[in-house]
Write a structure and sequence with these properties.
single chain; Elongation Factor Tu (Ef-tu), domain 3; 588 residues; 5 domains; binds guanosine-5'-diphosphate; Rossmann fold; alpha+beta
Length: 588
């Protein structure tokens, strides 16, 4: 058979793939359908999905090849001209919860936020700037819990340097590993800060050994990762850390063009009474000035006011500078890219085009192999967990949604996000949730008293949280309740039947000799004749010499009363194999 090679750059449409395979579109759509994907002709399939489908079709002569389209991970840093100028590094501090990320930023920036945060957990991605020896460093503040995985996908590509915080008295933890993996996948430079060295129990060497187990070799040991022991709380060695950040930035020669239309990323957005949309932006190239028109996703606006991270007004923002602006007509999404355009007309048109493109994209949503596997696994008997998510700002809604999606249910439960929104929980939410086993989660929002009453009346659970991981724990718990319980059976003993005294419709009285193990009332028994299974019985009492006893053990003879669900004609010589059965709630 002739070999055929199909090259896939990122993804391929159903139409293209069917033509490349020489199949009819209907046949391909049919195969997709059998695998749980309702596809249209324009739907895009990723490489992995295409290979699974080709496997399903049994096409052994077709080879798929991944075509590399881009080498650089960052979409946000455009090609540089020779007029590009130096820009501050964008640094993300990441690591396990409680290892000191917030404290580090606080000490560096002399601000006080640790105590304000609900449960001490950073909730929103925000940005700060530090001035040091006439140079500037931009810090992105990222949360340190499960939501981190979700948020990082949005803020990821901005980061030049990742500081991995590890507490010297706690060592490498799951989120430390996640941070390491993230930094590597984002192609960011890594600096390790070994924190809390002032603490009793701090062990710098053990922490370094831990880290080297996870692919980070300290310079001291001949590796290439700078590891700086610090105390974020007492300020020890923070100068060294900052110098190292600046040195790394120098080596990386971080630059951006100024002489181009401003562009960057939306890192936070919310509505404020009297101000309308309040949006945090991080400029990646060009200079953003007040009065300019910008487009982000399907919304646009004229920059009305611009504040720096300390809420001081500023007239323009250069690359790597985070600012808060007002003037957007609507809330742009967290992670949206923004660009400056010539005038309002262009802005409106582009926003409209973006909206149409987004609508098309969701109609022809790309199918990834993860979706496919999930659909295959949940195609039959899947259980659905319905949720409505409300949050104070778009960023938190996105984090909650993304983090919920990351809860691994081993394909047994499908998460159905009925709706999401910014603002307090309202009548419409309760209305949508009613009668459908839907949980409404509110993050940093409140529930007006009449809505709470309405929800109680309609039996709609509303849960509000201020800490994301508590919300996630609750959701996980709800999903666990949907899982089928695990059945655990344990073999206990065996009896050979020597006499059958009575068999009735649902009861048996018999006697015999214990060959092994023991038997007690409440044990279950499998009735076996010539290795064939006849049925199951429940032991209700055990007797020895006609007296009720607690048990019979190997070698003893005695009698049993048993309950059955249907009549079983027990005979001499049958075996009773005793066991216990427990059901155990499963966890995710
Ligand atoms: P995050 O969850 O990573 O942001 O951690 P936090 O900055 O909130 O710190 C968690 C706890 O560790 C707080 O009680 C801090 O005061 C404490 N902490 C942070 N850094 C240090 C340090 O260098 N030394 C000591 N002793 N405690 C620290």
């Amino acid at each position: 058979m002739e070999e055929k090679t199909i090259q896939i750059a990122g993804s391929i449409t159903v139409d293209e793939l069917s033509r490349a395979l020489g199949l009819s579109v209907t046949e391909l759509i049919g195969t997709l359908f059998k695998n749980g994907i309702v596809a249209t002709i324009n739907q895009r399939l990723d490489y992995e999905t295409a290979s699974i489908i080709i496997d399903e079709l049994g096409l052994k002569n077709v080879k798929l090849e991944k075509k590399n389209t881009s080498t650089k991970t960052s979409d946000y840093h455009r090609e540089l001209s020779d007029k590009a100028v130096e820009r501050p590094p964008v640094v993300a501090v990441m690591g396990h919860v409680d290892h000191g990320k917030t404290t580090l930023l606080d000490t560096l920036l002399h601000k006080k936020t640790v105590d304000d945060e609900a449960g001490g957990i950073t909730q929103h991605i925000s940005a700060y700037q530090l001035k040091h020896d006439d140079r500037t460093i931009t810090f992105l503040d990222t949360p340190g819990h499960e939501a981190f995985a979700a948020i990082r996908q949005h803020g990821a590509m901005l980061t030049d340097i990742v500081i991995i915080m590890v507490a010297a008295d706690d060592g490498v933890k799951p989120q430390t590993i996640e941070a390491i993996n993230f930094a590597k996948s984002a192609n960011a430079k890594i600096i390790v800060a070994i924190n809390k060295i002032d603490r009793e129990g701090a062990d710098i060497n053990r922490t370094m050994a831990d880290l080297s187990q996870h692919g980070l070799q300290p310079e001291e040991w001949g590796g290439d990762i700078t590891m700086i022991p610090i105390s974020a709380k007492q300020g020890t060695n923070l100068d060294r850390l900052v110098d190292m950040i600046l040195l790394t930035a120098d080596i990386e020669e971080l630059k951006a063009d100024i002489d181009v239309p401003a562009e960057g990323l939306v890192i936070e957005s919310h509505m404020e009474t009297g101000k309308g949309s309040v949006v945090n932006l991080l400029v990646t190239s060009g200079e953003l000035k007040t009065g300019e028109f910008i487009v982000a996703g399907s919304t646009y606006g004229k920059v009305r006011t611009m504040l720096d991270w300390q809420s001081k007004p500023r007239g323009k923002a250069t690359p790597s500078v985070p600012v808060t602006v007002t003037g957007f007509k609507d809330l742009p999404n967290f992670g949206d890219r923004f660009i400056e355009v010539r005038d309002e007309k262009t802005a409106r048109k582009m926003a409209l085009l973006n909206a149409q493109a987004a609508a098309n994209a969701s109609a022809n949503a790309n199918v990834t192999s993860a979706d496919l596997l999930r659909m295959m696994n949940t195609a039959d008997n899947s259980k659905v967990f319905n949720v409505i998510i409300k949050g104070d700002v778009l960023g938190s809604v996105t984090s909650v949604v993304d983090s919920l999606k990351l809860i691994d249910t081993h394909g047994e439960i499908t998460l159905n996000i009925v709706s999401t929104g910014v603002g307090d929980i309202n009548e419409n939410d309760v209305y949508m949730a009613a009668g459908d086993n839907t949980v409404i989660y509110g993050f940093n929002v409140s529930v007006p008293i009449n809505i709470s009453k309405m929800a109680t009346r309609d039996n709609v659970p509303i849960r509000t949280y201020k800490v994301i991981y508590e919300l996630l724990d609750d959701a996980k718990h709800e999903m666990e309740n949907l899982l089928d319980a695990e059945i655990i059976e344990e073999d206990k003993g065996e009896m050979k039947v020597l006499g059958v005294f009575r068999t009735e419709k649902t009861s048996i009285i018999a006697g015999g000799e214990m060959l092994k193990g023991d038997v007690k009332p409440t044990y279950l028994a499998r009735i076996i004749r010539n290795q064939k299974y006849l049925g199951e019985a429940e032991v209700t009492s055990v007797q020895k010499e006609k007296i009720d006893v607690k048990e019979l053990t190997a070698g003893e003879t005695g009698g049993l009363a048993m309950k059955t669900t249907s009549k079983i004609d027990l005979q001499i010589g049958d075996r009773l194999k005793f066991f216990t059965r427990e059901t155990k709630k499963r966890t995710l």
